[in-house]
Amino acid sequence: xxxxxxxxxxxxxxxxxxxxxxxxxxxxxxxxxxxxxxxxxxxxxxxxxxxxxxxxxxxxxxxxxxxxxxxxxx
Length: 74
Prior knowledge:
This protein is an all-alpha fold. It has one domain (2-71). The chain has helices spanning 2-45, 50-71.
């Protein structure tokens, strides 16, 4: 019985580490990339040109990346 409790505790710790890693990757890569992609295609749709769309996408990615790092770092 005690061995089962120890195994459950180790499983819970592993799940917590996995959850933390997934949330970190999502916050630092996924969210900024999705926002940059949205800005890029929005600029293409409103006919600003590929160059302006690319620059706006890169700037958005960097801005959102630093906002996420600043406000969601624990």
